[in-house]
């Protein structure tokens, strides 16, 4: 069979899934359930007093990665059929043809489209703007400092010291006197340097006292005088601990708060006024429904601690006239978006939470998307392109570029869609060029039904949306069974572990047999071991929240696909009972409010086309269409 390839470019909000393509890469791993211990920890609170906290966890199973041995990697990924999730209605009634999508990861190119469709993410510039000459004159350096960090602006020379002397020699006699401005600036700069060297110690102490005073005043305004007094005592204890070289770690907890805005304001305050002494983070409160801002000393045994969020904690002050966020394009190949973010954070010694983006992109492909980072200089992020582990740019798993500073971060949904370029391979030889051209032309001229792709529903014989439906219906026994039941395509050792548990209900033995990368299964088993074999709800609650939500979220794409299958697209008109939006397409991300929705009836059906029809996103108070689509569950 000849390998005939066709390339087509399209735009859309969701990418479809292809049947072809490669498999997943393996995960690395180390020891399994190794021991961990903890030491004592001091604690401060607003009422004063200290407390000890210690203990730890130990034991377990260590050594080599046993789950990489024979029998753990011979599984085969499976997928649901398109018809099972509602992917069965075509926009155009023309003959189709088969082909393979993503046979090579370079066959699938994705570029993010900004809100409003104004820009498409093309990585065109890997180079930083040319930096300022290191051999600058004292006049230029002084002017730059005043302009960048104090917000002052005035004319200044950009010539280097050598260039200045060369031009002066060519245009002025050797005995010419310096200009009045040069004389004043020279005298001022020399005096400032002398004053700084003489008083920098006193000035630093004075500045520190001023910052502490301002910090405590603002904390008192946010909370009360008792909170400010307790915080002041904590800061004093930090200073005494540094002088006495004590190894006891100090901790301060603010009052519990359920307001994210309040906690954000407090974190901003700590970063601006207290970043020389403390670092802050957010931890769960005692009641579970509130969170607490925690402060710890910046230094541990004389060294800066590493277990902190690096956002806004850089040593250098952020320039006065620079927006707070760095925006750049991330180009990646054959790599998950989340994996790329974690890899970047590791290379730059930052927390992955420093980076934000509008949405994840496919792993198997070449993708470009915008990313923002809070108060990170472009020179820092550009270091990614100088990684010595790769010989040239072609070997890099991702690159960054097109740097600019912006005032707002990206959040999920801050995009108009994606532009796709794809190659279809292995088209049967009996399919004519005319047939392919007709299909592609119809697709380009009249669009297509934009379903969620099969990748949304997982790669197991029991799809994740089936588990999600059980969770939404609060049938926790069924959800537990679905997670632990044997599955078609499982690796032989994993299938053996599942079957052993179904036969003997021996949780301890199952935990020894299940590999740690099956996070949901291990979490459920640990929950059953801790709470009892009949405590299905508590076992499900033991699954990490984000992973638990993945199952429930996959039920939404199923509902959307089923609703799309019920929309009348044959005649390109809305149907009686459909929801329609009054508004034109949004120029920026916004919600469609209930008062913007009208129902299509026999009286107004001529006023709307299929482009006006909107589908509901299911929720507890969603306005549903008044036709058969409302019955989709």
UniProtKB/TrEMBL annotation:
Region annotation (Disordered) ranges? 1-70
Q: Name one GO biological process term.
A: pseudouridine synthesis
Tell me the organism: Aphanomyces astaci (Crayfish plague agent)
Keywords assigned: Isomerase, tRNA processing
Provide GO CC annotations from the record: nucleus
Residue ranges occupied by any TRUD domain in the UniProt entry: 447-633
Q: What is this protein called?
A: TRUD domain-containing protein
State any single GO MF term. Answer: RNA binding
Lineage of source species: Eukaryota, Sar, Stramenopiles, Oomycota, Saprolegniomycetes
Protein family per UniProt: Belongs to the pseudouridine synthase TruD family.
Protein biosynthesis listed as a keyword: no
Q: What residue spans carry the Gly residues bias annotation?
A: 13-33, 48-63
């Amino acid at each position: 069979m000849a390998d005939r390839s066709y390339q087509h470019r399209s735009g859309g909000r969701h990418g479809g899934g292809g049947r072809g393509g490669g498999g997943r890469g393996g995960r690395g791993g180390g020891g399994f359930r190794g021991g961990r211990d903890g030491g004592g920890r001091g604690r401060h609170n607003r009422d004063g007093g200290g407390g000890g906290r210690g203990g730890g966890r130990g034991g377990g199973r260590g050594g080599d990665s046993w789950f990489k041995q024979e029998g753990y990697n011979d599984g085969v990924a499976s997928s649901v059929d398109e018809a099972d999730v509602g992917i069965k209605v075509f926009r155009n009634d023309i003959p189709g043809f088969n082909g393979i999508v993503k046979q090579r990861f370079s066959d699938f190119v994705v570029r993010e489209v900004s809100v409003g469709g104004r820009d498409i993410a093309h990585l065109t510039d890997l180079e930083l703007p040319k930096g300022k000459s290191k051999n600058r004159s004292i006049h230029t350096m002084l002017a730059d400092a005043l302009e960048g960090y104090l917000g002052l602006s005035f004319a200044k020379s950009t010539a280097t010291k050598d260039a200045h002397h060369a031009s002066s020699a060519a245009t002025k006699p050797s005995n010419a006197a310096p200009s009045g401005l040069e004389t004043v600036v020279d005298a001022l700069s020399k005096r400032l340097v002398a004053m700084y060297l003489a008083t920098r110690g006193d000035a630093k102490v004075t500045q520190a006292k001023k910052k502490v005073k301002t910090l405590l005043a603002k904390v008192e305004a946010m909370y009360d005088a008792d909170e400010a007094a307790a915080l002041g005592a904590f800061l004093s204890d930090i200073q005494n601990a540094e002088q006495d070289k004590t190894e006891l770690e100090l901790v301060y907890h603010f009052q519990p708060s359920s307001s994210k805005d309040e906690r954000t304001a407090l974190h901003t305050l700590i970063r601006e006024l207290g970043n020389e002494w403390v670092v802050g983070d957010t931890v769960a409160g005692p009641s579970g429904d509130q969170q607490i801002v925690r402060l710890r000393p910046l230094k541990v045994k004389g060294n800066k601690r590493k277990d902190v969020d690096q956002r806004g904690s850089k040593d250098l002050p952020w320039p006065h006239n620079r927006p707070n966020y760095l925006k750049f394009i991330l180009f990646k190949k054959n790599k998950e978006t989340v994996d790329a973010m974690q890899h970047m954070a590791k290379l730059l010694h930052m927390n992955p939470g420093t980076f934000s983006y509008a949405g994840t992109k496919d792993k198997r492909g070449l993708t470009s998307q915008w990313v923002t980072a809070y108060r990170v200089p472009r020179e820092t992020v550009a270091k990614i392109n100088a990684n010595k582990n790769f010989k040239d740019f072609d070997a890099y798993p991702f690159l960054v570029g097109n740097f600019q500073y912006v005032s707002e971060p990206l959040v999920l949904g801050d995009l108009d869609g994606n532009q796709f370029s794809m190659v279809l391979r292995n088209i049967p030889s009996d399919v004519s060029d005319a047939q392919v051209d007709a299909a592609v032309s119809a697709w380009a001229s009249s669009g297509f039904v934009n379903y969620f792709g099969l990748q949304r529903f997982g790669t197991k014989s029991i799809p994740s949306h089936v588990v999600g439906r059980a969770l939404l219906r609060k049938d926790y026994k069924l959800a537990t069974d679905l997670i632990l039941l044997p599955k078609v395509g499982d690796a032989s050792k994993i299938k053996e572990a599942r079957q052993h548990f179904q036969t003997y209900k021996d949780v301890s033995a199952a935990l020894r047999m299940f590999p740690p990368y099956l996070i949901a299964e291990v979490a459920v088993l640990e929950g059953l071991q801790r709470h009892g074999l009949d405590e299905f709800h508590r076992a499900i609650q033991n699954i990490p929240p984000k992973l638990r939500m993945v199952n429930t979220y996959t039920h939404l794409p199923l509902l959307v696909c089923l609703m799309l299958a019920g929309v009348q697209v044959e005649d390109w008109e809305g149907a009686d009972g459909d929801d329609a939006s009054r508004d034109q397409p949004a120029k920026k991300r916004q919600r469609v409010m209930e008062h913007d929705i009208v129902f299509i009836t026999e009286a107004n059906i001529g006023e709307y086309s299929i482009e006006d029809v909107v589908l509901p996103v299911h929720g507890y108070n969603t306005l549903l269409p008044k036709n058969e689509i409302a019955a989709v569950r």
